[in-house]
Write a structure and sequence with these properties.
206 residues, six-stranded mixed β-sheet, two-stranded antiparallel sheet, disordered N terminus
Length: 206
Amino acid sequence: MAFAHPARSVWYAAYGSNLSWERFRCYLHGGRPPHGNRIYPGSRDPSDPLGSRQSWLPCGFGFARQSAVWGGGVAFVDPQRAGRTPVRLWQITIEQFLDVFAQENRLEDPPGLDIEVDQGSMSHVTDSWYGSVMRAADHDSSPVLTFTAATAAPAAEPTLAYLEAMVVGLGESHGWDRATAVEHLCDAPGMQRWDPVGLVSALGKR
């Protein structure tokens, strides 16, 4: 699939903190997300998404690396890991998707529109943390795209602020209550210190 038509929309399969609208809107409108320490420039087209819906990716996820924005591990989907990852499909333009990709990877300029990603495959674009674009499927004749690391990194514990953003986003997108979201998160690599009861209690004290 070539990104040949800038006006055409895609479904960005968001996971991690980008499940939350308050967080994701910073990639479009610009600004600083709650509890984050980075100001984002926003997209060249700051329009709101055309729509959103809940979905799943056919692979697992885990927390890894040490984010300067969040102060701990952040989520990565892993095509080689068994399981399913709950995602929020944001319907945005190809241009917006590439701008989100550039901001996530701290690129000065977004990639060109000539990236090609076949269905069910991954295309390496840059050596940054989220430098590979994955095309999971198609929905309503538009590609479902996300990005992740080219290779898995050692697990690392996320901060409560990051987990809170994910819990909020899972509630918005999938209708999960806090206990359901926390139970799902506690199964991921990087969460060895937490059990669902303890994490619900810790988030409630924030």
